[in-house]
Write a structure and sequence with these properties.
Elements: H1 2-39, H2 42-50, H3 65-71, H4 75-83, H5 98-105, H6 108-116, H7 131-138, H8 141-149, H9 164-170, H10 174-182, H11 197-203, H12 207-215, H13 230-236, H14 240-263
């Protein structure tokens, strides 16, 4: 009986060791594939795939070769990985995808290649950011346009209520803002704290953005939950050049309201 138990223990030890060695080899292969994709070494990537390495093998934090290649803008490597069957929408542990990384970095051709492979434009990462919100945040107008053409939801919101329009306004990206407005972005969308695109532009002193939003009928009288307005934000930060058109807009809207009441009394 002791002899049998000893053989069983030895058997399981060998099975465990074999599995451990296999996992080590698999992890090493995944790391090598991801490293080659990171540097855009196409020949090495193809060689590893030909040897049977899983095209979607994962590294630290769930990263894959496709995500790494997209992040660094290696177009041909991205295409090779897609051709080999990589999941275009595969995501890291935090929800970030290849499309999102390409949008962050402004790799327009990579973005288009991923879209051509039917990447989902409305996937959200952990905090609710979509590729469109990310592209708008970083000012990549052509990428934002491509994403909208591919079906990205222009008014998608992050976990705290941010939108692509608010992101563009906050960082002063006029061309992106105009693209989003043309796609019917809601100019008066509010974040969970009540902030609007106009407020974000005002507090950061983006005069051209403020003027564009006013022209698009942004409501200058909306208040945050703490009582703040776009005008208060601009004045508090000392942006008098921004405060001026806000005061004009408020006066104009007040005059319109009074005129309507005069001619159309209740």
């Amino acid at each position: 009986m002791k002899s049998i138990r000893k053989h069983i223990r030895v058997h399981y030890a060998l099975v465990f060791l074999t599995c451990a060695l296999f996992n080590m080899e698999t992890n090493a292969d995944a790391k090598n594939l991801i490293d080659f994709a990171s540097t855009g070494d196409l020949s090495q990537v193809k060689a590893m795939l030909a040897s049977g390495v899983d095209v979607d093998a994962r590294g630290d934090e769930g990263i894959t070769a496709l995500i790494m290649a997209a992040k660094h803008g290696h177009l041909m490597t991205v295409q090779a990985l897609l051709d080999a069957g990589s999941d275009v929408d595969i995501h890291m542990d935090d929800g970030l995808t290849a499309l999102m990384f390409a949008a962050v970095k402004g790799h327009q051709e990579v973005v288009q290649t991923l879209l051509n492979a039917n990447a989902n434009t409305n996937v959200r990462e952990r905090n609710g950011f979509t590729a469109l919100i990310i592209a708008s945040l970083y000012g990549h107008q052509q990428i934002a346009h491509a994403l909208l053409d591919a079906g990205a939801k222009v008014n998608a919101k992050t976990a705290i209520g941010g939108t692509a329009l608010i992101a563009a306004a906050q960082n002063g990206h006029l061309e992106v803002l105009q693209t989003l407005l043309s796609a019917m972005a809601n100019v008066n969308d509010q974040m969970k704290d009540g902030s609007t695109a106009l407020m974000k532009a005002a507090i950061n002193g983006h005069l051209d953005i403020v003027k564009e939003l006013i022209t698009a009928n942004a409501d200058v009288n909306i208040t945050k939950h703490d009582g703040g307005t776009a005008l208060i934000n601009a004045s508090f930060m000392g942006h008098q050049e921004v405060a001026h058109p806000l005061r004009q807009a408020m006066a104009f809207r007040k005059a319109i309201t009074l005129n309507c009441r005069r001619h159309f009394p209740r």
